[in-house]
Design goal:
homodimer, 256 residues, alpha+beta, Nucleoside Triphosphate Pyrophosphohydrolase, Arc Repressor Mutant, subunit A, seven-stranded mixed β-sheet, three-stranded antiparallel β-sheet, 6 helices, 12 strands, DNA-binding
Amino acid sequence: MSVSPSLNPHVSVDCVIFGFSKETLRLLLIKRTVPNAITELDDSYYALPGDLVRDNENLDEAAARVLKELTGLTGIFLQQFQAFGDPLRISKAKDRAWLQGVRQDPDARVITVAYMALIDSNQVQIQPGSFSKEAVWLPIAEIPELGFDHNDISEGALLALREKVQIQPIAFELLPEKFTMSDLQTLYETILERDLDKRNFRRKMLNSGVITALPEKQHGVSNKPARYYVFNRNLVENGGLGFVNLKMEGSFTLFS
Amino acid sequence: MSVSPSLNPHVSVDCVIFGFSKETLRLLLIKRTVPNAITELDDSYYALPGDLVRDNENLDEAAARVLKELTGLTGIFLQQFQAFGDPLRISKAKDRAWLQGVRQDPDARVITVAYMALIDSNQVQIQPGSFSKEAVWLPIAEIPELGFDHNDISEGALLALREKVQIQPIAFELLPEKFTMSDLQTLYETILERDLDKRNFRRKMLNSGVITALPEKQHGVSNKPARYYVFNRNLVENGGLGFVNLKMEGSFTLFS
DNA sequence: ACACTTAGTGTCAATTACACACTTCAAAAC
DNA sequence: GTTTTGAAGTGTGTAATTGACACTAAGTGT
């Protein structure tokens, strides 16, 4: 039945790493530098962090390794969302130049499995060296042209995030341990790209049981200090809470 | 940065093909026969249809090819849902025997991208020869031990289907062109594994606008004949309808 | 003490969800 | 041709949820 292809593809993982700071969603991107054959100056461009999957590791492990090498963090939210395997996804000149630079066959096909990661960006210290001289948090509205098909992958991740956030309480992964109700609302508004009513938001969040109020309040702010909350990680992860459903405008629900 | 693994993995696609008949959800599985070194009789076992991805095709094309070779059908609902890449996913003796039979290195790693397909099983005529001497529709409750990690993949597909059905009107893909309201309700009840109220179901389905009543009714049934309906494929695919949201027991909705 | 800024609070009307039982229609049985 | 059988089809009242909406509270800075 199956005829073996002439050359096996390479398989990589790429991580779309989301962070949230200064009221914007951001992606953690790495900078790559490649020689430009014409100008003889170096070109640089951004790409998603990723790597080939190694012999002895599974896909989740590979993605976790990439994330750890770049950020030093482990145990963070990381979820596979789509594989990308267009035979022509490596065709830009600079991508080929980069592959040559890392001594890989630039004609080899690479199939990649994309993951999305949600991290509290304040907690990250970029690890020197491993992937790139430089890594930056770029607002999603300002993402330039990336290497390979990484723009497509990033857009896919954003759509996946928007869907997931409507079904599971995962947005908390983007906030620090303690956060205010306004922080949380701003985050949701940013991800969903629409305004939410303050009072209704509070009511539903509190009724849902996914967060707990702390006795502690803000200090040193020049206005009424906000109360801090924490995410009920244990309760949610142990199935104490079901499906979270963020109803979309124009939607309708089926069945009792 | 990245060290090339000693041997590139193979990449395949596997299709979890759902059908619905006699009030049960079924999977289309193929039978594989391999020599048993000890008994010298042939062993056989079931597996998901799949194949290696070819050089010139993308992942969706590979999955569509597998589906077409097996069923002769094109243009049917087919959606990627997860990649599986455990290094030990090929370890059972019969899987290795089968790989040897098709002249592939039984030690090579295979990473697979899994798709789920929804088809009207009445419409399928299994194509002879291509994949297997035999293909069968087995009720999901009666799936035996499959090759590779195909039990895991099937379970993943079922969970994905259950989630998708709550968000998008795709269950129709499992029914014939014309169907009765009871057919539809039974299908939903089967997928969701819970009973639904007849009157509430009808009301919401009709209000949702995803189906249209035909003037035609059943003939020759020994009870009150049911009306036929069709799925509004065009309306739904052109974005005329939004998010479909099937609220789960114990769920809660967030935000206005 | 006053200005400034963000936090925090309650109600009402409209919509949606859910529970629930009888009548209608056609064929088959007698 | 009357009766039996079995699934189709229909409506209402109650409870819960949604969504719109504006003022007071609590700090800091001047």
